[in-house]
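Format notes (please read before filing issues)

Several people have asked whether sequences and structure tokens are stored in separate files. They are not. Every record keeps both together, in the order shown below: the sequence lines, then the token lines. Line labels are part of the format and must not be stripped during preprocessing.
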Amino acid sequence: MLHHILQAYDGRLPDHCHVLFADTGKEHPATYDFIRECAERWRIKIEWLAMGHEGYDTPFDALIARKKYLPNPRTRFCTEYLKIRPIRAFMKAQGYDRWANIIGLRADEPGRVKKALDRCTKFYTSVAPLWEAGVTKDMVMDWWSRQPFDLRAPEGCGNCIGCFMKGRDTLIATEQRHPGSLAWWAEKEKQIGATFRPKNRRMTYAEMIDFANRQGNLPLADSTESIACACTD
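Then the structure lines:
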């Protein structure tokens, strides 16, 4: 999507267009490499935004310490504080009272598109140009297969690696393929004495780690569950 926007402006974004990345600190290392490579190869400035986290390893650590409880599917304050607020603060600092929030959801994601477009606020209106153009996942994958570089994050590791919005089987499969992926999430549940998902609905992260260690490899299921948030793949 970004590349096509660049092409529309003859390879150089106008001053009123800003490319933003709001960092939670829990993305896969390959995600960070990919963002840097996009900036270098396409000669654009990508603003890295993050909630202040002095004294803590990541913005997510700082947020949980400040809130003293864990985000969950009903109260996804991680999205609000780690993504939405830093982006809003940046745009307001540039002098904007309202702006278009351009997102990369595709034509084969109608449910997610509708939810995203319905989330418009007094600050921004969401726009999904890939959806409007009829672009599907196969088309996106075909385009990237012809590029000199690509996102090298393993399947299932998009967004925060152990995000509680991902399906249980995907999280277990990720831990099996990449041991230690769920360790931070398990530690936070232990630290706070609570869980990211209700215990009566899903295993704790420690239980998923234990299950991953005892079972054969699971197939990767859909990496997100039915409740969408502002974090997009």
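For reference, the curators noted about this record: Residues 223-229 have pLDDT under 50 and may be disordered. The domain at 2-145 is CATH 3.40.50.620 (Rossmann fold).
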